[in-house]
Specification:
The chain is α/β, with parallel strands linked by helices. It is about 50% helix and about 15% strand. The protein contains twelve helices and ten strands. Helix 1 packs across helix 9, helix 3 crosses helix 12 and helix 8 packs parallel to helix 10 (about 295-315). It is elongated, with a radius of gyration of 25 Å.
Amino acid sequence: MSRELHTKKDKLIILKVCYILLILIVTVGLTCELYFVVERYLSVKRVDEYKLTIDGIYLGQKPNVTFTGKIWEKQFEKYKPNALWTALVGNERYTVKINSHGFRTNEFDAVKPDGVYRIICIGASTTFDGKTNDKTYPAILERKLKQAYPHLNIEVLNFGISGTMTDYWINRVDDLFKFQPDMIIQYNAVNDISWYHMNRQNNCINKLKYYLRRTLNLSFVIQKLFPTDTSFLDNCMLNTFHNFDVISSEARSRGVEYIVGSFATPDFNRASDIHRQYLNAIVQREWGHGLRLKDYSSYNEFFKRYNRQFRSFVAQNNLSTVFVDEAITDPDLFTDVCHMKPEGIEKLADTFFDGVIKILNKELPLKN
């Protein structure tokens, strides 16, 4: 009888210890969660001020922003021909001019004149980007190519449409190739990953798995202890690569050269402390919101995996490629997770310049 009582007491002690441990674990977990929530709240207030200085324009003061004009005929799909949009931000003026064909580029003949070597750059806002039309990467690329090949009549056209995905031109193939390009350059991926794949806008992710992961990611603690597996979006990435393959095949069938770039993002480890807080905040509020990602590091792991898969894809399909992710990593060149300051846009043009001349050099010598 005494042995039974002793056994019951032992069990009771064990249960009490387990209960206390459980209470401690829950208490520590909730305390950590509260800490991360408060820390992020405070950092967001700091980075809102930092965001005003990130592109070197605002000089730490809240800008006086004035907008004039509208450029969209249908948002994130088509610009209004001949539209003009300006923004005065502090003392800096941004100007967007849309030509008669509905693109942010110089006027050009729909029927390519004899002797013109026409390059068309397709993509989204990272192609469209620049304070003025002549400060976009396609415009800068054109100037560099004309300097390198003064005897060649080179035309680089910016067909970037902000907010679009890699599939944008697939249903508009005839609209693209009717302008008779000699070369197509494609640079985009971030919209696919952030606004399509992470938001489950296609059927590439198991529905139950997706919503379970989103639910778990509500917690800072759980997300830190059990990060989202980057293979989570592998099937989705295949859709993006398929879109590249379609455009490259259409180009090949028409005798058009095609170059596709990997995708550049800022190196978190090289960023200052406040810049890291900024990246974390904009991932939580915007770019990683579909999966409720809390930190830029978790978000960027998807891009590292994407670029690794991209290398395998272009090698298997023998595509001309520019590895932008290797060339541009300095966080000081970026204004967020993908858009760039003028210095970054210049470097983007340099990076594609290197890819273009590898093709042109097969037949055309560089200027001495």
